[in-house]
Amino acid sequence: QVQLVESGGGLVQPGGSLRLSCVASGDTFSRYSIAWFRQAPGKERDIVAAMSWSGGSTYYLSSVLGRFTMSRDNAKNSVYLQMNSLKPEDTAVYSCAADLRLVPGRDEYEYWGQGMQVTVSS
Prior knowledge:
Helix content: under 10%
Low-confidence stretches: none
Shape: globular
Mean pLDDT: 94
Largest sheet: 7 strands, mixed
């Protein structure tokens, strides 16, 4: 079992950047595939980016491709989401999630962080 704690959210102007962090504890972090999700009010939760535990498989939502970069540091039990060129439509609650499957489906992630607000507004 793994516990996840996110940080780094907040208010940023359009065109700005934020770096989200997710720190894991409780189990061997390198065993887990990790994803960043977001949910805007009135919308379904989407996978923004995902990375398998092996690092061999990555995924990005098409609307963030080229702007967001996900990375992980197993030595620090951490995963990051660097978000550049932020747009108002990126406003949402962002959460990290973990699962032992190599490539979990969107609804298969077992462990979740508490989520944090990211607001892109002038």
